[in-house]
Amino acid sequence: MAEEVRPYCPYYARAMEMIGRRWAGAVLRALWTGATRFNEIADAIPGMTDRLLSQRLKDLEADGLVERHVHHTRPVRIEYRLTAKGRSLGDVLFTLNQWALEWITLEDEATRPRSS
């Protein structure tokens, strides 16, 4: 028998808080596609400030979705990677991306004629 879906689930609510923060999805996507260093992630997300990126990386690290690796070289190199918990969101992020491509219209697309 299928599990009953109730109007509120604290697990779902917490998951949405984690990935639903402003820019969190963009950071996860950038990491998923291979960006690992701060500047690579920043370059992959137009319009996001360095301060907000730094905060979002800290939030995602605290949530256990991202891990920070410090390489003790000269100069010091810091890389960010998805944890197993973060990588397990891959199907969710892909499904959300497919939904967005089908249902979301961006403002600049609304005025541009579609090619056949």
TrEMBL record:
SUPFAM superfamilies: Winged helix' DNA-binding domain (SSF46785). The keyword Transcription regulation applies. It comes from the Bacteria. Pfam families: HxlR. PROSITE patterns: HTH_HXLR (PS51118). One of its GO terms (molecular function) is DNA binding. Residues 9-108 form the HTH hxlR-type domain. Keywords: DNA-binding, Transcription, Transcription regulation. This is Transcriptional regulator.
